[in-house]
Amino acid sequence: MENQKHLFTLPEDIHYLNGAYMSPNLKSVEQAGIEGVRRKTNPTFIKENDFFQPAEEVKSLFGQIINGSSRQIAIIPSASYGLMNAIRNVPVKKGQHAITVNEEFPSDHLTLRKFCQENEIELEVIKPTNTILGRTQEWTEKILANIGEDTAVVVMSSIHWMEGLKFDLKMIGEKCKATNTYFIVDGTQSVGALPIDVQECNIDALICASYKWLLGPYSTGLAYYSTKYNGGEPIEYSWMTRKDGHDFSKLTDYPEEFGGGAMRYNVGEFSNFIALPMVKSALEQILIWGPENIQNYCFSLLSPLREFLEEKRIAKDKDQLISAHLYGLFLPSSIDLNKLMEDLKGNNIHISARGNSIRISPHVYNDAHDINSLISVLDKHF
């Protein structure tokens, strides 16, 4: 796969290695948004079918990315919204517990913690050992060891959002299935740039904000809910999620029945005429590239960085256990993180600091010059 910077409008003097913070707009996504704004200038262009058909197209595209039925996909405004729909429908028995991982993203942790408090069950936070090498494999093993018949739900990100460590979702999903445990995954920091299969991994709910690796606009997202959720209780009761919601002549019949699959979990006004075309355009481009190709491109791109770290003897986990699009690096105690970040910013290099690590998150708009510029600054501090 070749560099795709020509499809974006990033300035040439900016080294944007911060896709995990927020993706830049594709030119096509920007244009779709502009056209969406202009469309409402004359509302006669917006037909009744436009409230529903574009959403079905978006669901179909997302389904192809995750290998999930479009019928089981809902459009959401945020990851926290999708998570609440998923967690509030998990059945709980007395004496059960819930599981998440250490330093999980706040929305995941806080939503699960509230669920545990309301249901008076214990929240188990699984921590890795205090080492870097072998950290990921050992972490997965500890998660597996704690899942049992008394586990109500496991809530975790597909990769660790701070470090990029890849959990073995397939093994965790198999253990959850065997113990009748709900498996809820926040895919915001990997879906779109790293392959995932909700069927193979036995994922019950996959929640994704779209403004990062799905390359969409802010305040939009997509969620997959397995058939376990088809009889669940949604957060809200929109007319658009009803079985005959598309028939405007019957709106005041006030139907009780929801539409099929995960329709009930759609956010109200999900047919956003500005944002949804942007999401669609982004998903179409991701499918053209392919998440596996994106991952391979990023892996090759980071080769000089990995060689640099080996020369500097900076400890890190095995490359196959760290995602290539979100590469977390623990800093030696001798390095002043604030000075490093100031130096990077002064050289127009944009990455994130999370905890005691830096997070390098490239995409197909990055090239060797971006990585070499990063290495030059790191070399002055390491």
Please, could you describe this protein's structure?
The protein is of the alpha/beta class and 382 residues long. It has 2 domains: 5-25 and 290-381, Alpha-Beta Complex (Aspartate Aminotransferase, domain 1); 43-288, Aspartate Aminotransferase, domain 2 (3-Layer(aba) Sandwich). Helices cover 34% and strands 13% of the residues. The protein is built from 11 helices and 12 strands. Strands 2-8-7-6-5-3-4 form a 7-stranded mixed β-sheet, sandwiched between helices. Helix 2 packs parallel to helix 7 (275-289). The longest helix has 15 residues, at 275-289. The mean pLDDT is 95.
Going by CATH, the homologous superfamily of the largest domain would be Type I PLP-dependent aspartate aminotransferase-like (Major domain)
| Name of the top-level CATH class of the largest domain | Alpha Beta
Q: What fraction of the residues are assigned to beta strands by DSSP? A: 5-15%
Q: How widely separated are the two ends?
A: 32 Å
CATH topology of the largest domain, by name, is: Aspartate Aminotransferase, domain 2
For the sheet with most strands, the description reads: 7 strands, mixed
Using the alpha-carbon principal axes, give the shape. globular
> Care to count the β-strands?
12
Give the ordered list of helices and strands.
EHHEHEHEHEHEEEHHHEHEEEH
Number of helical regions: 11
Helix coverage percent of residues? 25-40%
Segments where pLDDT lies below 50 for 5+ residues?
none
- Quote the average pLDDT: 95
Query: What structural class results from the helix and strand content?
Result: alpha/beta
Identify the strand order in the major beta sheet. 2-8-7-6-5-3-4
Instruction: State the CATH architecture of the largest domain.
Output: 3-Layer(aba) Sandwich
Radius of gyration: 22 Å
Can you tell me the number of structural domains? Answer: 2
